[in-house]
Please model this.
Amino acid sequence: MRCLTLANELREQGAEITFLCREHEGHLFNVIVSSNHRLLCFSPSIKMAKGKLAHAPWLGTTQEEDALQTEEVLKVIGYPDWLVVDHYALDVEWEKSMRSCVKHIMVIDDLADRVHDCDVLLDQNLHLTDMETRYDKLVPSFCKKLLGPKYALLRPEFKKVRSSLKVRDGNVKRIFVFFGVSDSTNETGKTLRAIQQLDRSDIAIDVVVGSTNLHQKDIAGLCAQFSEAELHRQVNNISELMARADVAIGAAGSTTWERCALSLPGLTISLAENQVSIAEGVGETNAQIYLGEASQVTSEIITAQLERLLQRPQNLIDMSKAGQRLVDTNGSHRVIKVLRKAT
Model:
């Protein structure tokens, strides 16, 4: 989704975009195509992905095979100005093999657990202790590092909505629930059961799920048990839903920056390893409350934290202000400015 945001912004400025993706289960090809970008797909490989990288199995093949397939495609489409790489199973081995096919390479990362050969590295997440130094030994000396939420890739709609936000006074009349496109462990259902325990018929709920969410039937059934709950599937107006909410409960992924940009306070749960540092960092700034990893967070924990927030409106006001200070919605423009300067 962060690549799609960048692609849409680049296209607005005249760039031609091609997505290269492998056909894994749960892919979002329909989202890319519906955004009118060219999509070239690699078939699933029969080769088992093995290697030194922690996330090597995520690639679905070896770096060598993936690189060969990518090289073939890049030569056909005509040596692009920029190759943007966003994959935890690719590193310097793969990137070096691309050098003869592209002018520049940009890597999007947030784990800082492998070496890269790139001209620009983007890590839009907040790392309180080592943000400026964590990639020093992992990228070339000439690499331009774009670090922190000031470079958060947010869609233009968030800038527009931010300019007309309501005043957040700490009163809670609407809760926003969203755990990403897939939500494989059904944190959405867990959260709805937690909200049920509040027994607050005066609070409305907006629940957002993606098209690949396998728990939609369960979630729809839970929503039907509330007097004021609305289920939204694969929406294109998520910024508006966030803007009208008073509290959010969701994953600690890139949506964190969307919530902060709209000064929406709330509770976050990490669904994957790369979300932990985001959640911890934002929690330290008091922009959100981090509850922990999904496997450790129960509906009872969510209920208890919600009850505390409902009783402390000033805390919600302070969180709103802290979030808005972190993200100003100009991140995409800052990234594109760097890419254009180097082209």
